[in-house]
Amino acid sequence: MISALMENLMGNMHIAWQLLIFIVAFVVGVFCLVKFCDIFVDSASSIAKRAKISPMIIGLTIVAMGTSFPELAVSSSDSISALMKSTEEVAVHANIAMANVVGSNICNILLVLGFSIFFTPIIVKKETLKRDYPFLLVATGIFVLFGLLFGVSESNYAILRIEGIVLVLLMIIYIIYLIIDAKKHPVDSEDEIKEFPLWKAIVLLIVGGFGVYLGGDFVVFGAKGVALTGANAIPGVDKDLAEKIIGLTVVAVGTSLPELVTSVVAAKKGQVDMALGNVIGSNIFNILFVLGISATINPIIADNTIVFDLIFMLTVTLLLFGISFTKKLDKKFGILFLGLYALYVIYLVLRVVLATQGIYLP
Fold it and tell me: What does the pLDDT profile of the chain (362 residues) look like in tens digits?
């Protein structure tokens, strides 16, 4: 992982130089995301058209997995690191691993989809309501149940290794189901899509996907570095709580930037099905594969403040499902989602600020 190598190289470098590197990494990451997401969407659209596969299916699988690489890298890396840490350090790593998935899923619905439908309305198709949303609800519900019902102690909650294996198996079943469904229902796309020779489309998809991953990695490294430096500079801040809040916000937004840029680019290019599929698929992928792999490597433990965030994640998922029955996600819902995300971030900031005064919010 690029960010891990950079952290090792920085060592005891002066804090001013560290901040400069963090900022430069963030800028480079954003540039890579914008540049390579365009390539990624065009090549994925071309493959979908040639293979007569719905752009929604491509969004749910290839695009969703590609844009979720940063979440997978961050969470699995933290789980691997936790294997060699003390019990106290494991809790800090787990706080980021679980908070990253929860925060990313909240961010995908409220921020990513919010921005996308603010620019371009999305018509929700019947098959999406019957096939994809129910599976997202089931995956989210299982995550919440696993997270809340199997507590290690009164103040800690966990995703155990066996639960991680179950989540990964469910992901495999879902992908197989989508492949079978795509073969049963081939589509002829009439959209104006750039067509590349198949070999070129595959090469561009790989290049674009790697560029998205690289950009996301640099963004997470830069944003997380600046945030942690700032948190450590504030006296009286609970470091474990600060790590978790950073996981829920800075790291979550950083790892969700590929989804954000890809969905907005897809929506602007008229690939609204791909934009919606990317968000739904990424949330399913985050829970079943990212969290599943991370918990399989090492059980993920989080403190009791994760309860509110898990319930909020489930609430916004149910909200999206309910709103989708209107059959059209447009600007007013985009404003609602963005407003809810702003309120959530304000709440998280208040949680840290009040904790320094000895007042602990849920």
Answer: 555 555 554 555 666 777 788 888 878 877 877 778 778 777 877 777 777 777 677 777 777 776 666 666 666 666 665 555 544 444 444 456 677 788 889 988 998 899 888 888 888 888 778 888 889 999 999 999 988 886 555 557 778 889 999 999 998 898 888 878 777 766 655 555 567 788 888 888 888 878 877 776 787 777 767 766 665 655 555 555 566 666 666 666 766 777 777 777 777 777 677 778 878 888 998 899 888 988 888 888 777 778 888 999 999 999 999 998 888 888 999 999 999 999 998 888 787 677 667 676 66
Per-residue b/e over 69-101, b at no fewer than 16 CB within 10 Å?
bbbbbbbbbbbebbeeeeeeebbbbbbbbbbbb
Residue (of 204, 185, 168) closest to 297 by Cα position: 168
Nearest of 300, 283, 71, 38 to residue 171 by alpha carbon: 283
Q: How far apart are CA 162 and CA 252, in angstroms?
A: 25
Task: Provide the CA 172 distance to its chain's centre, in angstroms.
Answer: 19
Work out whether strand 328-329 and strand 300-303 pair parallel, antiparallel, or are unpaired. Answer: unpaired
CA distances for 89 relative to 4, 222, 290, angstroms: 17, 22, 21
* Structural domains for the chain: 55-194+240-355 (1.20.1420.30)
